[in-house]
Design brief:
The chain has 14 helices and 29 strands. By secondary structure, it is of the alpha+beta class. It comes from Allobacillus salarius.
Length: 567
């Protein structure tokens, strides 16, 4: 492709809206352009890289035995209502109505659609197992779109769904797709980890996220410093290994704590360690009020709370709701003397507290010398807090450290969740109706592209790994007024194309400095420059990834490239 004919609108300044490297470089190098908040055009260079990422995904999905399909983007509301997600997905689900006032959703995901499809087409266990996948734009009305392609309202995704007659079959396909994902991210040259994760709005159990390590990641990975254990911080279990201190319990007393509302303020005012306090937070769990107690230096993990109750919706109670129940605001909330309508659950660490402090359910007052089970009853103890750095690793090897990550892939064992809600059944080998057992497997295609830029971009621009480069070579003619250089550059352009290579040929009437800057910005790994050496039969080669440069005889170019591409 001649660069003079290609739409590559490079920029010299970083757009103010771009906060992170991938967003900055993709805009500067002319790969994408913003249409609206969280919505982007992919320009020719961006589309080329996107196709390369898709190609890798298709090859590995096909290798794993999956079959590609294409499902509708517009989905009728009734199938979402049947699973309950029309209501539980809230504002993220983009909704619209047709001219007959019938409600639809723009596809955020396709569990409902694919389950309905298979329900109508497959009736016997003899057709199982199989896996269907597609690569398609998805839509989610993010409350705060940010970071360019990493969190948008429209994005490209590969989603796959497997159907089985047994959980053993699901386990086999899950492992096959896990391995396929590992090969995909290996081929993208990404530094990633597979971590234990939460299924969230997707439902189901047993799930892994594939996280690209990056300081701009919005997820935190908890990993062992002595083993390969890794989990999303929301899912990392905390080892219950506490013991009660050898101190004498005292009588509970009420203490005035004016203007002290946070745990740290209360601890400072009363003169005790933060860990000697009890933090109380009121939640609504599927509409039911639950008070969660954790140690003062710990944080409540609402994902663990949701999993404890197997709940659909877990949300914080409002201060107005809390006052209506206990008569006090958040800063003075505690478990002593609560009405029977509120269930109290506590993290494991709470049962080891002696002479602790908690809110007195009266503004400006706290109780001191509180003993769990003596002064209040706990419905049950559970792992309800976020793991912290320095905690023992759940696998018993080493301690926990944190790293940030970008989620690029997520796989789930859905079980029969969607099949049961949508009435999708097959006849087993005994002729009995059974719900399909399902798995779900997603990759953020456009997000993976941005993650590659985060890891490989540098101060000069893109630095694409070979498998996703937009072109094989960047050929630059430095002087379009020099007939000899023009003739050689044209000749090399034709030769490289005839040899089957994809070439971006910079034939623009621009200064050499502009061409070099744009070449570094675009980031094609291998560059050939036709310059002053043309009269002597030499061209300059530069490896964008290593920075190495050397002169190459045009008569030896074919051999040079064969060695280069075989490396």
């Amino acid at each position: 492709m001649r660069q003079s004919n290609m739409l590559i609108p490079t920029l010299r300044e970083v757009p103010k809206e771009a906060e992170i490297k991938s967003h900055q470089l993709l805009l500067k190098a002319g790969y994408i352009r913003k249409l609206a908040s969280g919505v982007y055009n992919f320009l020719p260079l961006g589309k080329r890289v996107l196709r390369k990422v898709e190609k890798i995904i298709r090859e590995e999905m096909d290798r794993a035995g999956a079959q590609e399909v294409q499902m509708p983007t517009i989905q009728p509301a009734e199938i979402w209502e049947a699973t309950g997600r029309w209501y539980t997905m809230g504002g993220e689900l983009m909704r619209l109505k047709d001219r007959h006032d019938r409600p639809f959703a723009l596809g955020a995901t396709h569990e409902e659609v694919v389950t309905t499809l298979v329900k109508d087409e497959v009736t016997s266990y003899k057709k199982l197992p199989f896996t269907l996948y597609q690569i398609q734009n998805k839509f989610r009305d993010e409350q705060r779109p940010r970071f360019g392609l990493l969190r948008g309202r429209e994005f490209l995704m590969k989603d796959a769904y497997s159907f089985h007659d047994s959980f053993e079959s699901l386990d086999e396909t899950y492992q096959a797709l896990y391995d396929a994902y590992s090969r995909i991210f290996d081929r993208l040259n990404l530094n990633y980890r597979s971590v234990i994760a939460d299924s969230g709005a997707m439902g189901g159990k047993d799930t892994h996220e594939f996280m690209v390590l990056s300081e701009v990641g919005e997820d935190i990975i908890a990993y062992s410093n002595s083993s390969d254990y890794a989990a999303n911080i929301e899912m990392a279990p905390v080892v219950d290994q506490g013991e009660k201190p050898d101190v004498q319990p005292k009588e509970m007393e009420k203490a005035s704590t004016p203007n002290a509302k946070t745990m740290q303020e209360v601890a400072d005012y009363l003169g005790h360690a933060l860990a000697d306090g009890m933090k109380a937070i009121m939640f609504k769990v599927d509409g039911r009020f639950v008070l969660v107690i954790v140690r003062g230096d710990h944080e409540v993990n609402d994902v663990k709370l949701k999993n404890l109750y197997n709940a659909d919706i877990v949300e914080l109670a409002t201060e107005e709701e809390t006052r209506g129940i206990v008569g006090a605001g958040f800063g003075s909330l505690g478990p002593v003397g609560l009405p029977d309508t509120v269930e109290v659950v506590a993290d494991y660490a709470v049962k080891y507290l002696v002479n602790a402090t908690c809110g007195a359910n009266e503004d400006g007052y706290h109780y001191i010398n509180v003993q769990p089970e003596r002064d209040f009853q706990v419905s049950h103890y559970a792992d309800l807090r976020f793991i912290q750095e320095g905690d023992p690793s759940p696998d018993g090897q080493g301690t926990i450290e944190f790293a940030k990550g970008i989620e690029v892939g997520h796989i789930f064992k859905l079980g029969t969740l969607y099949a049961e809600k949508l009435g999708a059944e097959f006849l087993d080998h005994n002729g009995k109706s059974q719900p399909f057992i399902m798995g779900c497997y997603g990759i953020g295609v456009s997000r993976a592209l941005a993650a590659v830029v985060e890891q490989f971009g540098d101060e000069d621009g893109m630095n694409w790994p070979k498998e996703v480069r937009p072109f094989d070579f960047h050929l630059l003619n430095l002087n379009t007024k020099n007939d000899e250089q023009v003739e050689l550059a044209d000749q090399l352009y034709k030769q490289l194309q005839d040899d089957g290579y994809d070439v971006l040929y910079d034939d623009r009437k621009e200064r050499p400095g502009v061409k070099f800057n744009d070449s570094d910005l675009i980031g094609i790994p291998y560059r050939f420059v036709v310059g002053k050496g043309a009269s002597e039969g030499y061209i300059e080669f530069k490896n964008r990834q290593t920075g190495e440069q050397e002169d190459v005889k045009t008569s030896e170019l074919t051999q040079f490239i064969e060695q280069l591409m075989g490396a």
